[in-house]
Amino acid sequence: MTAVLPRLLRALDQFHANRPWDHNAHYHRWILRRLPGRSARALDVGSGSGDLARLLATRAEEVHGIDADPAIVDRARERTVPGVPVTFFVGDALEDVPSGLYDVITCVATVHHMPLTDALTRFREHLAPGGTLIVVGLYRPRSRSDYLIDAVAIPSNIAMAWIKNKGRGAARPVAMTAPTRPATTAYPDIVRDARLVLPGARLRRRLFWRYTLVWHQCAPPTD
Asked: How many CA atoms lie within 13 A of 18 on its CB side?
């Protein structure tokens, strides 16, 4: 058994190398379903190649995407057709977010690159009254339930790779060419810290080594 496991893992790695698919894009439509019908301004933090920002542009009058990697921002700009109300910026999400408030803020597979409390505090400051914040993040497995979800995700991951590539090998999606780093914070710690900054935030572990966070900024009472 111990001799079989390394061979199995190598075979899985080779399978996914030949049939890559974007785990983050898997959640884009899920994000759209949790947004209001229309909004004025939207911000996508860690916008990468711009796929989610362009989707947000179907629901918002103005969309800003910000990413720290100049090369991937160039690719996002190249892939955006004229007339789509999206502007991409190179910058630090904690320091360089374009001024003003946003009705929608999204952040997919990026918040683990930043101090969590600082990032969520900054997002809250930029969120308009009544606005929606949605985070899809990564966490470090630690508990039995974490590893159980990971185990369930393996066959699901294989099936999705086969379906999305129609059984054949394929090139890596543009969105997967951006620099990445592994998550270092366990899910319970993320939940604790997030709810200190965002009271009432809804967090849930998801397949494909992700968690989601949804939070609504309360609108001020009206007279």
From this structure: 12
Question: What is the pTM assigned to this prediction?
Answer: 0.80
Note the pLDDT tens digit of each residue in 46-70. Answer: 999 999 999 999 999 999 999 999 9
Sheet holding 202-206, edge to edge: 86-90, 60-67, 39-45, 102-108, 127-137, 210-216, 202-206
pLDDT tier for residue 2 given thresholds of 50, 70 and 90: very low
Burial pattern 71-96, b for ≥16 Cβ within 10 A else e, equals: ebbebbeeebeeeebbebbeeebeee
Question: What does the radius of gyration of the chain's CA atoms come to, in whole angstroms?
Answer: 18
Instruction: Return the residue matching tokens 């969590």.
Output: 116
Closest CA to 206 of 116, 132, 146, 125: 146
Domain of 183, CATH number, reads 3.40.50.150
Between CA 140 and CA 216 the distance in angstroms is 26
- Residue 34 CB: number of other CB atoms within 10 A? 14
Give pLDDT tens digits for 178-213.
556 778 899 999 999 999 999 999 999 987 778 999
Q: What is the pLDDT of residue 157?
A: 54
Closest CA to 194 of 149, 139, 142, 126: 139
Total Cβ atoms within 10 A of residue 215? 24
| Cα dist from 196 to 72, 92, 118, whole Å | 33, 23, 12
The domain containing residue 106 runs over which residues? 1-223
Domain count, the chain: 1
